[in-house]
Every structure is written in structure tokens, then in C-alpha cells.
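task queued by scheduler; priority normal; single chain, no ligands, no partner chains; default sampling; output format set to C-alpha cells
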Amino acid sequence: MLEPDFWPTPSPPAAFAERRRRLAARLDGPALIAAGESRPRNFQGNRFPFRADSHFAYLVGSAAEGAFEGAVLLIDPTRATLYAHPPEPGAALWTGPAPSLDELAARLELRVRPFEELRAPPNAAVLPPQETETALVLGELLDRDVEPGGGPALTGADAALADAMIALRLIHDEAAIAQLREAAEVTARAHRAGMARTRPGLREAQVRAAMEAEIIACGMSCSYGSIVSVHGEVLHNERHDGLVAAGELLLADVGAETPEGWAGDVTRAWPVSGRFTATQRALYEHLLAAQLAAIGAVRPGVRYLEVHRAAGKRLLEGLIAEGIFRGELDGLYERGAAALFFPHGVGHLLGLDVHDLEDLGDRAGYAPGRSRSEAPGDRYLRLDRELEPGMAVTIEPGFYRIDALLSDPARVGSLEPDLDRDALARFSDVRGIRIEDDVLVTERGAEVLTAAIPKRVAELEASVGG
């Protein structure tokens, strides 16, 4: 493990005050932003770690601050007030000392009052919480129904609040970008540690442990459930009990999250033995070329759908070169050939969540007036907006041999005569590869925040096994 010489830097209170001011300026009336509650794990005394709602964390601070549990932020045109629960008597015995409301107010530079004093304006707007308990609390405060997870169906003042928050969070401020850089740095440490730990005969869990240990040692947590698997064709595979054998590729999709909730999200795939086979190297190089083509397309004014298509077409070009497909590039792409091996979107927004703003659904991910395509390969795209400076996105094309897709006549359809299954069989030692980086849109193009993580063939081979 690398030396734990890193520790997160908190954003200054002024950054949150400015966000609250900018949100209030976009609203015609008051708004309630709830922090949410922790959830019980099997029984009430055993709780999942508290993690504040991301909209709340964006406006107040640390996503993991226990004092925020059950709190509500009231924003109106003149000021913001945090209504929080004072520490329970006796709780220090179990959880240690907690800040008083006065101490919390001094630290946050924000007016803080006891939750019992909250008298919610009846016309206050809310964002849909993700759990029922908080929806019920908001409903009681406002004397109306509040549906959990109801982002796409919002109306009236709630819709206006959602649109205002989307407008703010789509374009990251300096404090947010600093947080994303720290998440990227620790994510890079984790991936280098995983590569160094890898050798034949281990369990996937041992490589995962080396990666997550680096994240924890740097004062962060994982921004999602780690994927560390020789079965990279299972897109969200969270099992870690498999053996890591020579001749296989290990896929690791692991990211760090800062205490304020900002996420890193990176995938790499590397050879367990430290050397790619000829067939693994060929497909890996084609996928890397697809990822670099997509990153090269990232710049202000470009529609993210075109970034996605740049990756799909470059990958398909490689598959044609290897004889896996026969035919003309554009025609094959339009018929969904790339989607047989790259069935998901090229990436998503990145910020306070690993899939940033996804609680608000396509309202956040798609520009007004746009809806999801029905075309194979495009229908799962989470983002279809023109890129702007300050946006952060992931770029993560993949190649997967998924038997459920390749053996389904309805999915293969008219592509069957163009698919050379004998040529595909030569690549049987490649089950799943994904190459993912975190990319910040700049005034002139793009900055890869995670460029320090090896991804060229020679770099990966030099990094595996210490």
C-alpha cells in the first residue's frame, strides 16, 4: 500500500454560502432541502452509515456529518436557516461528543435553529427524497403529499426548484472542481495499489481489499460498490469470491468519495499475469482507441450523444479490422452492431454522486425537448446535453462477450450474416474490458482528471504485480 500522506481538504464555508445565494436568486419562493435519515440494517440499533442527500450536501457541507441526520435547510430570498436536531442526551456514550447547534452554526457560518422551531411556508418547494421516511416528514411539514424518488414527475414550484438545482450543479464551481481533483487523486492511488497487488492465485477480494485500503487510509470512502472481477462481462458485478488466474483479465471499477460526497469513478482492466495475450492486446488496443476518440471529442458545444457515437464507431472499426464483423462501418453502426459488444452509454455526469443528478432522472441528464433514443446502443445513454465548461463526465466504453446478447436471435437479428462467429471465437480469452476516466470540460477542450492511472498496454504490464 502507498504511504498515507494524503488527507482531504474541506471546502470553505463561503463556498456553500455562495451556492445557497445563487440558488435563492433562481427561485421565486422558499424551498426546503432535506438531509435525509440513516437506514436500519436488519434492526433499528444497527444502521447503515448516514450519508446526506446530495442536494443538501451541495448547499451545506459534509455528506457524512451525523449532526445533519434528519435536518432540513430552509432557503428563502433573504436568508438560509438550517433546522437540526440537538445531540441526544447520553448519545456521547455510544458515538462520542457531537457539536451543539451553536457550535454547528459557528463552523458552518450558517444560522442554525432547533428542528422543532421549523414552520415550513405552505408554498415551499421540495426536491423528492429517496426514502419514504423523509418524504413523510416533508409531507407533514407542508400538509401535502411528497412522493419519494419522484424526479421526472415534478410540477409547479418543485419542478422549478429541480431545474434551478440542475442548472447550478451541472457546472461545477472552483470548490467542486478541487473536490473532484482530490477524489481523482485517491482513486488513482487505489488503482495503482490494485495493480501492484495482482498476481495469479489470489481471490478477487484480496485485490479489492488493497484498493479500498488505500481509499480508507486517505480519509475517504468508496463512491459506489467496488467491482473487481475476472468476469468483466457482468457490467455491475459486485461479487469478489472468484480466483484470479493467469491468462485472465481483471476488471476493476473502483472510485473514491471525499467526505463532502464528491466522487471518483474509474475502470481499468489488466492482465493477471502481467502480460496481455495477443488477442487480449488487440481488443484492448481497439477499445483504448475508442476511449481516446471519445475523449478527443469532448469540448464545449459538442453534444454528448456524439461523444458516445465516436466511441462506438471507433470500436466497431476495430472489430471490422479483426474480422468479427463484415460490412460497411456506418451501416453496421446504424443497425446496432457496436451495441452487441458495447451495450451501455459511454458515460454519465460526475459530481456529488457517481451518477450525478440521477435522482432527478432524464430531467437532469437530457436537454429540454430531448428524450431517449430507441436505437440499440443509444437507448441507455444517461446524458444527452451539449457540453459546457465546468461539466464533469465519465468516458467509459467497453467490450463485452455477453452470451445472453450473442445467443438471442432477437438481439442479433439481421446482423447475423455480418457477424463472423469463428473470428469472434479466436478472442475467447476476452470476456469483458472497460476503460473509464473522469473528464472535466474546459474552455478549450477537456482535462482528464484521472490521467495518472496507467492505461496504455506497456504501462499496465509494468504496473501489475508490484
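post-processing summary
- The two ends are 10 Å apart (CA to CA).
- Residues 248 and 315 are 21 Å apart (CA to CA).
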